[in-house]
Amino acid sequence: MRILRAHGMATTIIHVIFNAIFVAKLTYAASSWWGFTTAKHRQRLEAVIRRGIRSGLCAPDHMPLEDLVTDADDKPFNLIIYRNIMFYAVYFLIVQILITILSQDVIILC
């Protein structure tokens, strides 16, 4: 990564590469093993991010690893809830449209 920076690669691209390589490896399947880690283990994992920030490979406003794991764990459930809400909203609208059409005594020719 330092070689890429030495050859003039943009800082934002280096940050993207750091996230794609290091953060992805640190958070891979983290929702399954994060609960088994101790505070010492979590500090060591956070140290990787801090070293990346210190060396300029990671953005200074990078989210803490614990927040990344929590967000990754919550994201599938939030999608399910959102999709259910959207399904019932669309279902309600369709039912209302059908009730309106059927209550008008309009003959629909097929």
Proportion of residues in β-strands? under 5%
Give, in order, the helices and strands. HHHHH
Secondary structure: helix percent: over 70%
Total domains: 1
The overall average pLDDT, rounded, is 85
| Rg from alpha-carbon coordinates | 24 Å
Find the count of extended strands (DSSP E, 2+ residues).
0
End-to-end separation:
66 Å
Structural class: mainly alpha
Shape: elongated
Query: Low-confidence spans: pLDDT under 50, at least 5 residues?
Result: none
Number of helices: 5
Biggest β-sheet, characterized? none
Describe this structure in words.
The chain has 110 residues and is an all-alpha fold. The protein has one domain. The chain has five helices and no strands. The N and C termini lie far apart (66 Å).
Entry summary:
The chain has helices at residues 2-6, 11-27, 30-33, 39-54, 65-103.
Question: What's the arrangement of secondary structure elements?
Answer:
Elements: H1 2-6, H2 11-27, H3 30-33, H4 39-54, H5 65-103
Attribute tags:
single chain; 110 residues; mainly alpha; elongated
